[in-house]
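Box 3.1 A note on notation
Throughout this textbook, protein chains are presented in two layers. The first layer is the amino acid sequence; the second is a token string describing backbone geometry. Keep the layers aligned when reading.
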Amino acid sequence: MNQYVRDENKSVPVSSKLRALFELQNVVSEIDKFKTLRGELPLEVQDLEDEITGLKTRVSNFEDDIKDLETAIFNKKNAIKESEGLIVKYTDQQNNVRNNREFDSLSKEIEFQKLEMELSEKRIREFTAELSIKKEGVTTSGTLLKERLDDLDRKQRELEEITAETQIEEERLKSKAEKIEGNIEVRLVTAFKRIRKNARNGLAVVTVQRDACGGCFNKIPPQRQMDIASRKKVIVCEYCGRILVDKDILDSIETVVE
């Protein structure tokens, strides 16, 4: 980033822009404190909501699988009954055959139906074992779902309590920030937000403290400090890219929390 941000709006003194940017920084820093107060609660609530959605889907899938397995078991039991009926039928027919070929043919049909019954019984055992696993999955997931729902309810109440306590002040500060932004050219506001987004502590505008940048604490040459104090240019730190203002600028704006 260039060490100097070109000033395109000549109608407003750079000193006024710097004061506005610093005041904006103070306001959004106060808003950040509310976010810090809420801590990780919003993310925790979102994570719980996502996990609950996943658990509900898992339970629903288990329940669908259970219905399919129960239907499959029912069909196999019916198939066994049909095979039993056919065996009785073919056995009766064997008593009335006229030759060995018909008898052997019926014997093969009876043997086939017995094999079908054995296969159906095997499938029933397999489906029953799988059904037990699915039902256990429903129980386990259901228990976990209840716990997560309780956790979500508790976290949401905590978040609502914190938000209720700070909402009025936070809204006031947001309104003030929007008003200040309206008095700053769009280009500078965009730069401010970009710098702020990349800064770990959310500071886009910092003062010179003990001959160093108030953001990254790298030393600033005396001549550069004089340029900053003159407030004739928007100057950024050559190390971290934050906008630099002199510490006396505090005396020229009203305190944010007043």
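The longest strand covers residues 205-209. Residues 8 and 16 are 14 Å apart (CA to CA).
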